Amino acid sequence: MQYRISTGDFRNIVxxxxxxxxxxxxxxxxxxxxxxxxxxxxxxxxxxxxVRGILQMPTGVGKTLIAIGLIMTLYRIGRLKGKDIVLYLxxxxxLKGQVEERLNDFLENNPRFQSNAGLxxxxxxxxxEDIVETLRFFFEIWGGERG
Length: 147
What we know:
The protein is mainly α and 147 residues long. It has one domain (7-121). Helix content is 51%, strand content 0%. The protein has five helices and no strands.
């Protein structure tokens, strides 16, 4: 399924997302480089008609902010729904903690992502089993190739 959204629409959505990010308790802000990366990522996902991909960038660039913006955008345009899973991997445990904190700060504490009962639509989960088995499970769900 292809998105029926233009690059201009993506720009407007990204600006709206940036406004939402800056209005939360621990305000975030997307720099121009984040906005450009997010729009480019959305363009690639639109052209491929998928919601799967890998975002790989140098340390300290703001991958977590871009991921939060991507999650919000895909949610807003209806490509992510309540039961969908976003898998965010980090190469180091210390980075995992930082990512969890950032995601919790925004997604779990943002009224836009709360139900009427005050429950969060998003939660950060830590795999309880071996990560390889967890990844195999997700690849089976997504129909990915096994290697």
